[in-house]
Design brief:
heterodimer, A: alpha/beta, Rossmann fold, six-stranded parallel sheet, 17% strand, B: alpha/beta, 11 helices, 18% strand, globular
């Protein structure tokens, strides 16, 4: 590894078919940057399905059985693994950059958002996942976490030390700012972890006629339909817009024109939304249990951190709605904070491949 | 429908199978479905690792995604087609060839050289016999692949032809003074056989080779043979060419030489036909024999330098005949009705 130029690098990750998310963008971004730095890099993704729980064990074994030591007769110099169980794939020069562990076996165990604990074999599968992580993650040559939040979980649950390593959201340089209009923006997949429902409940309690635009969708439309029904029942149709899946330029435009960004997600690993809001000079409202966003939002300086209750969230939304100057100042401070954090791919590559 | 395309590949290598998987995905999407490719890494060396990767495929679960059913999977390559699914259709590009017809091939055989080669070969054959029939339907790339599957595994299947990528863009130009041979440069494609044929041609036949060598040694061997046989002014190595350049080289050639060993299918034959050019192939070339009609759309030679030399001389000296054969090849292609709509209909019915 004396000469880090021109390596043959594989990026190992898992993919849930037909679901595009941050992890795919992360892998693609990493690949693009490695190629730009003169390496040959490709993504290997293994399909993943986490239910019934015993199937997880099969797929962990499948990953252990794959062979990425060489490709086409030539050595693979480095394996950069991102997600469970793909990070179990063996390689003598493996760098693991943990996007997240299998959360149902850790922070979501016995949590209303998890369900592994409800299954008859849940505990045995959880134990196997813990064992595999504790035995095999330390085999990596270097170990990083996507965020401090992910690193903290690794230490808390597995006693493993990993360095947080931040990376920029896709197309970071394309974000811009514009004059604030009368809406808060919440772009994210629509599911229980992102808590769009909490936003609807809060909207019913705001003093001001706060308006919210949601962008995003999900493969399972049940949650979204529930949120929409709740908005109708609460007579909030005129204050809520469901934009569905939108293009990247449209998303950047909405960031630029928003008054601020809502991101009351539950224990997010990292969260591009926070960073994108900062790049668009917008204040962010997150919750005290939102995880990743708390590493970036400075309360009352670049946004607001509130309790995850409809009342507290309503209070935060009212505060931004009624104090436009403050909102603007916090947005500017957020942009400055992003710059100060030095989140860039050059730094990432230096640390992954020193 | 949600459709997953299952294939295996070697990271960093992009070849015909990858292009086919992409084209299939695009065609399935164009028919109004959702389609994605699952490309599993496959490492065939050392052989002892092969059964482990077969097992890995059996352990994967692609029946649903986030509680939403995956309606159909289409398995293309070993060992990815072993992944279980209740509605799996196999469109077999090829089995693991060195466990079958290439087992004792002098240049291509690999398993045979390992102490555990026979055991691994048996494991592969056993898995194919046991698990391929799980599929609700089995199609193959060509009659040639179907024939092998029948012969070695006792499994019946139907050939299902697909068009080369960008088929509508192939065109015909004035016939120049060269034969064109586009392919990866390796012993299975037999560029060396064409070089040896050139040395015994009576006519001053010229050949342009396009494509990348699998490794530098193979390119070096070919280059050395050209030098030793004093053929430098009659051979050109174009290396990797763009698709556009490739189509132009087809269009402006006198004809196409394509003498591989037991090719599964062979887009080169079809591309030549689309470009209205005659094809010279060999009696043991496999796939091309399903398309080349001897003396009508091309010439089928024996796999010897002398026989290939005769065929090249014949077209070189009979340019009008070459042109007529090329036109007949184009007609023949159109008669075969090779298109993606048909492929998607069959695979999703």
């Amino acid at each position: 590894m004396a000469n880090a130029r021109g390596l043959r690098i594989l990026i190992a990750t898992v993919r849930v078919p037909f679901v595009e998310g941050g992890a795919e963008l992360h892998a693609q971004g990493l690949r693009r940057e490695l190629v730009a730095a003169g390496h040959r890099a490709e993504i290997v993704s293994v399909p993943f399905k986490w239910y019934p729980p015993r199937r997880i064990l099969d797929q962990m074994l499948a990953c252990r059985l794959l062979d990425l030591t060489a490709a086409g007769g030539a050595r693979v110099d480095c394996l950069i693994a991102l997600k469970f169980p793909a990070y179990l794939i063996p390689h003598t020069n493996k760098v693991v950059w943990v996007l997240h562990q299998h959360r149902q076996a850790y922070d979501l165990w016995q949590h209303p958002m998890g369900d592994l604990h409800d299954h008859p074999h849940g505990a045995e599968v959880r134990d196997a996942i813990h064992q595999a992580d504790m035995d095999l993650l330390p085999q990596a040559r270097r170990l990083f976490a996507n965020s401090r939040n992910v690193a903290d979980r690794l230490r808390t649950y597995c006693g493993i030390e990993a360095a947080p390593l931040y990376h920029p959201p896709p197309a970071a340089q394309e974000f811009y700012s514009g004059a604030a209009e009368d809406f808060l923006f919440y772009p994210s997949r629509l599911n229980a972890l992102k808590r769009q429902r909490l936003v609807i409940e809060a909207l019913a309690l705001t003093r001001a006629k706060v308006r919210v635009r949601f962008a995003g969708t999900d493969i399972d439309l049940g949650y979204q339909e529930g949120c929409m029904a709740l908005a109708r029942r609460s007579r909030l149709q005129s204050r809520v817009e469901w934009l569905g899946g939108i293009s990247e330029p449209a998303k950047r435009d909405l960031y630029a024109r928003s008054l601020g960004v809502l991101f009351p997600t539950l224990d997010e690993d990292y969260g591009y939304v926070t960073l994108e809001a900062m790049l668009a000079h917008k204040p962010v409202i997150a919750c005290a249990d939102s995880g990743g966003p708390l590493e970036f939002v400075v309360n009352r300086k670049t946004g607001l951190i509130c309790d995850p209750t409809p009342q507290a969230l309503a209070g935060a939304m009212d505060e931004l709605w009624e104090n436009r100057d403050t909102a603007r100042q916090w947005g500017e401070a957020g942009r400055q904070h992003y710059t100060d954090l030095r989140i860039d791919w050059g730094t990432v590559l230096e640390r992954l491949l020193p | 429908m949600k459709v997953l395309i299952l294939t295996s590949g070697v990271p960093f290598i992009r070849g015909g199978a990858e292009i086919l998987a992409d084209s299939l995905r695009d065609a399935v999407c164009a028919a109004g479905h959702q389609a994605e490719i699952v490309a599993l890494p496959f490492q065939s060396c050392p052989p002892s690792r092969i059964p482990e990767q077969m097992l890995a495929c059996r352990l994967l679960d692609v029946t649903e995604t986030c509680s939403v059913r995956i309606d159909r999977v289409i398995g293309l390559k070993f060992p990815a087609y072993l992944v279980p699914h209740p509605h799996k259709v196999v469109w077999l590009l090829h089995q693991h060839r060195t466990a079958y017809e290439l087992w004792d091939h002098p240049a291509a055989g690999d398993l045979i050289h390992y102490p555990d080669g026979p055991v691994v070969r048996e494991a592969i054959r056993q898995a194919d016999r046991t698990f391929l029939p799980e599929a609700t339907a089995i199609y193959t790339l060509s009659k040639n692949v179907s024939g092998r599957l029948r012969r070695y595994s006792g499994i019946d299947s139907k050939p299902l032809y697909n068009p080369p990528a960008h088929a509508p863009l192939f065109h015909k130009g004035p016939a120049g003074d060269y034969f064109f041979f586009p392919s990866r440069i390796n012993p299975v494609k037999r560029q060396w056989l064409v070089i040896q044929a050139l040395a015994v041609c009576r006519e001053p036949v010229r050949v342009r080779f396009a494509g990348e060598a699998d490794n530098e040694a193979q390119q070096a061997e070919c280059t050395k043979a050209v030098r030793e046989l004093r053929l430098s002014d009659r051979v050109e190595w174009l290396g990797v060419v763009s698709e556009e350049r490739k189509r132009d080289e087809y269009a402006n050639s006198l004809g196409v030489v394509f003498p591989p060993v037991d090719e599964d299918y062979g887009y080169v034959t079809l591309e030549a036909m689309l470009s209205s050019k005659p094809v010279i192939t060999c009696a043991d070339s496999g796939g091309p024999l399903e398309f080349v009609v001897d003396n009508q759309t091309g010439l089928i030679a024996d796999a010897t330098p002398e026989s290939i030399a005769d065929a090249m001389d014949c077209l070189w000296a009979g340019r009008r005949r070459a042109a007529t054969m090329g036109e007949a090849g184009r007609e023949h292609y159109l008669d075969l009705k090779i298109d993606w709509e048909n492929v998607v209909d069959k695979l999703l019915c």
